């Protein structure tokens, strides 16, 4: 999804300028963007959401499409057993709800604000009209949908073919961004129960696996971040697991019987 493109002093919600700043419209000729803003900006409704407030719930019958101008939301699905599985944390600049606008079906996921967020909503029929009348937008939307499908296929493969350990490895690599040298960084470090919800597991095995990665020296905890020191090694383990290959466990550090690390945990924030 698009990154946060909000300016320090964004234009008031509902204005044509605010509409033109939606990342979905970036790159369009100015005349085309202005024309879309003149037609569709007045039809958008804007609202502020507090942290933890529901934006859209499961099985909601609405077909509006939502655009995040500021803040961040979490998208999650619910299994038949009632367990929630986190799909994505979507930052400012992203949008959601387009699936319901396209097929008219009830919402398949719930969306909750993670922090104070300003979100605009456009009726589904207006969104489809805007896209169908603008070939550049239609192509952009298709690319975004294909990216989502590829990611969903990847995660489905992980859930069906990998054990908890390797699902965790894959999720850590997905969450991390490039750091110094060959390292990758997750900042701030996610809470253990959130990681567990992302991979369809319980918190306890996630905690054990993170502690093991730290003991092996593949991962390090720093102030406010989790650093993947050897992402290539973790990637190789995932590839081997998918091929059914096993390897001996080699520790780069001799584990103490009761180290301070074991006593204080992995450095992840607890619920």
Walk me through the structure.
The chain is α+β, with helices and mostly antiparallel strands. It folds into two domains: about 15-160, Jelly Rolls; about 165-265, Winged helix-like DNA-binding domain superfamily/Winged helix DNA-binding domain (Arc Repressor Mutant, subunit A, Orthogonal Bundle). Helices cover about 40% and strands about 20% of the residues. It contains ten helices and twelve strands. The strands form three sheets. A four-stranded antiparallel sheet has the order 1-8-3-6. Strands 2-7-4-5 form a four-stranded antiparallel sheet. Helix 6 crosses helix 7 and helix 6 crosses helix 9 (about 230-240).
What is the approximate shape? elongated
Q: What name goes with the CATH superfamily of the largest domain?
A: Jelly Rolls
CATH topology call of the largest domain = Jelly Rolls
Q: What is the level 1 CATH name of the largest domain?
A: Mainly Beta
The percent of residues in helical segments reads 40-55%
Number of strand segments: 12
